[in-house]
């Protein structure tokens, strides 16, 4: 991939996570019955950061899980075991599903299927660091860090310290 532009630097990513966190608190009138679930890989990292910010602001530690959607994707099937780690009940909870980029909506659909397979939450709300448009399914994020209009040929890459050694978002070809 050839990098065309840096969309967000480390400070912009941190601000977006803070804004998403405050919006979650406002929309839900606090953090009662909320659980955070991040889509593996980078969505899980962002979910942890959102949960840490929520704890910092409200003083309440929330359950945080990770979700492997590979077994629910419609474009490929996984031959590996499910790597999800959700060690808390989701029945009647408000699930905040966190992903790095929302694009066609197919990954989100797979994530919803994976969550519903585990129980019946009260609701599922979606937080995405980047919304790049081009939906193929009628799905939208409830919380968005940044809207980035792109062409279908462009690639949006969220980079996190845990995997990439840097926190930023780039666009490339």
Give a description of the structure.
By secondary structure, the chain is α/β, with parallel strands linked by helices. The chain has one domain (10-153): Rossmann fold. It has 4 helices and 8 strands, in the order βαβαββαβββαβ. The strands form 2 sheets. The protein has a 5-stranded parallel sheet with strand order 3-2-4-5-6. The protein has a 3-stranded antiparallel sheet with strand order 1-8-7. Helix 1 crosses helix 2. The model has no long low-confidence stretch (mean pLDDT 95).
Key words describing this protein structure:
single chain; 173 residues; Rossmann fold; three-stranded antiparallel sheet
Map the helices and strands.
Blueprint lengths: L2 E6 L1 H19 L5 E6 L2 H17 L5 E4 L26 E9 L3 H11 L6 E9 L11 E5 L7 E5 L1 H4 L3 E5 L1
């Amino acid at each position: 991939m050839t990098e065309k532009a840096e969309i967000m630097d480390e400070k912009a990513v941190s601000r977006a996570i803070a804004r998403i966190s405050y919006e979650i608190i406002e929309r839900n009138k606090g953090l009662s019955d909320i659980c955070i679930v991040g889509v593996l890989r980078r969505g899980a990292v962002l979910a942890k950061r959102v949960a840490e910010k929520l704890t910092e602001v409200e003083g309440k530690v929330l359950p945080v899980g990770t979700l492997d959607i590979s077994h629910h994707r419609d474009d490929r099937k996984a031959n590996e075991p499910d790597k999800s780690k959700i060690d808390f009940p989701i029945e009647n909870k408000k699930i905040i599903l966190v992903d790095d980029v929302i694009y066609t909506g197919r990954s989100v659909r797979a994530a919803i299927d994976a969550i519903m397979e585990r129980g019946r939450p009260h609701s599922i709300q979606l937080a995405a660091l980047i919304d790049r448009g081009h939906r193929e399914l009628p799905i939208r994020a409830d919380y968005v860090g940044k809207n980035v209009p792109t062409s279908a040929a462009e690639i949006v890459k969220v980079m996190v310290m845990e995997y990439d050694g840097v926190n930023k978002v780039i666009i490339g070809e």
